[in-house]
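Journal club prep — side note

Before the paper discussion, L.F. wants everyone to see what a predicted structure for a comparable chain looks like in token form. Sequence:
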Amino acid sequence: MNRVYLDFNATTPVEPEVLDAMLPYFSAEFANAASIHTPGQKARAAMETARERVAALVGARPQEIVFTSGGTESDNHAIFGVVAQPLLPALSLSNGAVPSGETGKHIITTAIEHEAVLNTCQALEKEGVSVTYLPTNRNGQIDMEELRRAIRPETVLITIMHANNELGTVQPLEEIGRLAKEADIYFHTDAVQSAGKISIDVNKLQVDLLSISGHKLYAPKGIGTLYVRGGTRLRQLLYGGHHQRGFRPGTENVAGIVGLGKAAEIARKSLVEDAQRISALRDRLQQGLLHRVPQSRHKPCFPGRRGRSPPHCSRLKGPRMFDGGGLFLRCRRAIARTHGHRSATGRSSRQPALQPRPTHHSRGHRLRLECRARRRRPTPRTLSYLSQGGHGPLLMRTPRVSRAFVVAQHAAPLALQCKQMETSSAIME
């Protein structure tokens, strides 16, 4: 059986060049970057070089980059850090609870954010912070007028993801940033699924805070960054030493930081070329599926709008074949399972209901096909693509729901042609 991994939106392998850059810092160059002796300063120099490379990827200054353990920590630090700044004192009830809205603070986010943002906002709601969850249209895009109407005098933060990991939707961050600046509100974006894949300029987008995770762009797991615009008032999340100017204490993961810096450098240099190559591969995949799958048709991510979706995302509509539960039972022995958001495991994430619900797409090597299921409150699941020895039918895992729109046949010949592709995605609904 020829197994193909297609879940690159969940994680990516470490690029060989990235691994080569990291290896010395596991053994020969093992010193603590906070030490003042020569080995320690060599480690610090490598870390600062990596900081410069990450800053160059997003158009920031090196001193605005804070290294973290990944996207979840970065999102938490951004949201808790802004809201924790003094504004109005909370009023506690006799039982210790805080009445809703009594902190005098308000956050605006969307209904399709990653759990690292959604659960953080929900935790703050329990502390009395008011949160507005903006709905989206069927393409996963927010309405700018709704955002404008949601702003209040007490709004302190707008947090909206850049590229959605399920639909491929790219939100209009430049417009949002302009609106946030006019209203004097901090603006954070989760760019975990877009950094290194599409162009980012923090000054053009006018974001104050931006989250990145290393293992989404061929760096190791356990390393990420938070961009913090100069002058942003952000309360520290952790307490300890004075590492990274007090923003994020703790002995730095030098090997991981060096790896992230190298990955950022590779991504920045190949961004335009990769986008062109991947777009061509996506179009080839799309045309092949439309030709081979009966009753399928192309469904643009954003009708009438060009350049609003990452190059690796394609949306196709196919016929109903059979229910997802039955399909999964047929395929479970051969399918590599992944479910929930990005890297979520152990339980499936539950976003607020969206009609229709998006499902995951993958920025991965080779080919990925996906299914969208219609259900009032669905549990997101990821599809995995598998070709039996390169000759069998396409096998996909679908959500266990009553109705699913699945294309599960006729794609194996196309798969053989696409085995050397990098980063193609199709969403089947």
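L.F.'s comment for the group: The mean pLDDT is 75. Keep this in mind when we get to the figures.
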